[in-house]
Amino acid sequence: MWGKKERVILTVEGMSCDHCRMTVEQGLQELPGVAQVKVSLSTKQAEVTFNPKKVSLEQLKEKVQALGYQVG
Q: What's the rounded mean pLDDT across residues 7-35?
């Protein structure tokens, strides 16, 4: 069903609280093709497992930026 999955770690700048972390996590999870998202406030990283045939790395980055954060 999922096909080939890829995992990427994005550095997310601008998160300052748990609400920020949840916003990024839920926002990325909404994208079609995203299987799993783990966001860490302490490391400022989002670990995303996704199907590259359904969503691109660029789309993941654009979503984070649309939520109001920067991708490093």
A: 97
What are residue 45's DSSP bridge partners? 11, 40
Q: What residues form DSSP beta bridges with 46? A: 10, 39
Which CATH architecture group holds 6-71?
A: 2-Layer Sandwich (3.30)
The residue type found at 72 is G
Domain boundaries, the chain: 6-71
Tell me the whole-structure pTM to 2 decimals.
Answer: 0.92
Reading the block at residue 60, the tokens are 């993941």
**Which band of pLDDT confidence, cut at 50, 70 and 90, is reported for residue 7?**
very high
